[in-house]
């Protein structure tokens, strides 16, 4: 079992920055990667970014490249999502997810999310 707790969301204006945190606990030795997803109102869930814990290899969705950065602090068992130049279309519930095993699988565990609201 892995527990994930997100924080750092809030209400900001266009162009602002936020840093989201995902604190992981539990059977962390079995976690292959941690990912961020987002659920926008009326839209399907999108993958935002992922990071492999062993070597820091990252994946960013096209809309996130150049504005978002994913990083990890293995000592703190925490993954961060730095979001810059935020736009109203970034408004969403941002969820952290854990991929278990030894390769890129669909996530097995999910946090409850942190809400980001960007106003114009």
Helix share of residues?
A: under 10%
Shape, per Cα inertia axes:
globular
Q: How would you classify the helix and strand content by structural class?
A: mainly beta
**Beta-strand fraction estimate:** over 45%
Overall pLDDT, averaged?
96
Please, how many helices?
0
Radius of gyration (CA) equals 13 Å
Record field, number of beta strands: 11
What is the helix/strand order? EEEEEEEEEEE
Largest β-sheet summary: 7 strands, mixed
Distance between the termini: 40 Å
Low-confidence stretches: none
Describe this structure in words.
The chain has strands spanning 2-7, 10-13, 18-26, 31-39, 45-52, 58-60, 68-73, 78-83, 92-100, 109-110, 114-119. It is built from no helices and 11 strands. The strands form 2 sheets. Strands 2, 4, 5, 6, 9, 10 and 11 form a 7-stranded mixed beta sheet that branches. By secondary structure, it is mostly beta strands. It starts with a strand and ends with a strand. The radius of gyration is 13 Å and the shape is globular.
């Amino acid at each position: 079992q892995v527990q994930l707790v997100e924080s750092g969301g809030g209400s900001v204006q266009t162009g602002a920055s936020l840093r989201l945190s995902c604190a992981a606990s539990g059977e962390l030795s079995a976690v292959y990667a941690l990912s961020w997803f987002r659920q926008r109102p009326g839209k399907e869930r999108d993958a935002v970014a992922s990071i492999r814990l062993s070597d820091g290899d990252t994946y960013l969705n096209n809309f996130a490249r150049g504005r978002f950065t994913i990083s990890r602090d293995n000592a703190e068992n925490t993954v961060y999502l730095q979001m810059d130049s935020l736009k109203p279309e970034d408004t969403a519930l941002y969820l952290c997810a854990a991929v278990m095993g030894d390769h890129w699988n669909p996530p097995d565990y999910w946090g409850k999310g942190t809400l980001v609201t960007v106003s114009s």
